[in-house]
From TrEMBL:
Entry keywords, A to Z: DNA-binding, Transcription, Transcription regulation
Any one GO MF annotation of this record: DNA binding
Matches recorded under PANTHER family: HTH-TYPE TRANSCRIPTIONAL REGULATOR YODB, TRANSCRIPTIONAL REGULATOR, MARR FAMILY
PROSITE patterns in the record: HTH_HXLR
Top-level taxon of origin: Bacteria
Protein name: HxlR family transcriptional regulator
Alphabetical list of InterPro entries matching this protein: HTH_HxlR, WH-like_DNA-bd_sf, WH_DNA-bd_sf
Alphabetical list of Pfam families matching this protein: HxlR
Residues annotated as domain HTH hxlR-type: 19-117
Length: 130
């Protein structure tokens, strides 16, 4: 049996349908998902406060993102009966556990994204010259 990331595989050994890593990337690769999780990292927060914290998110996208995160078990939604009802969101323990790898990716981005931009610019110059 080949290692999951072996480079000498005879048959395909990386599958989108069974790879847990790609399934998790589907969850967190949406730009709004990461921002919503970061907005909740300090604890319980109301919908309107999340919306205020995230520049450019529409009500529709925020609602869809929160519903998906709730479905995935990363976010807990609580409604306090009042007029109007108070809706608050918080990360579940599973959602909190995602903060550490997201922070690591954020640190990598802060440290390396300028290099990515430089590589893109170099590539584009060569590509246009051809």
């Amino acid at each position: 049996m080949n290692h999951p990331f072996s480079t000498n595989a005879v048959e395909p050994d990386i599958s989108l349908s069974i790879c847990g890593y790609s399934k998790v990337l589907d969850i967190i690769s949406n730009k709004w998902t990461a921002l919503v999780i970061y907005a909740m990292e300090d604890g319980i927060i109301r919908y309107s406060d999340i919306r205020r914290r995230i520049e450019g998110v529409s009500k529709k996208m925020l609602t869809q993102t929160l519903r998906q995160l709730e479905r995935d078990g990363l976010v807990k939604r609580e409604i306090t009966p009042s007029v109007p009802p108070i809706v608050e969101y918080s990360l579940t323990p599973l959602g909190v556990s995602l903060l550490e790898p997201m922070r690591a990716l954020n640190q990598w981005t802060s440290k390396n994204y300028e290099l990515v931009e430089q590589a893109r610019a170099s590539y584009d110059q060569v590509d246009q010259a051809e």
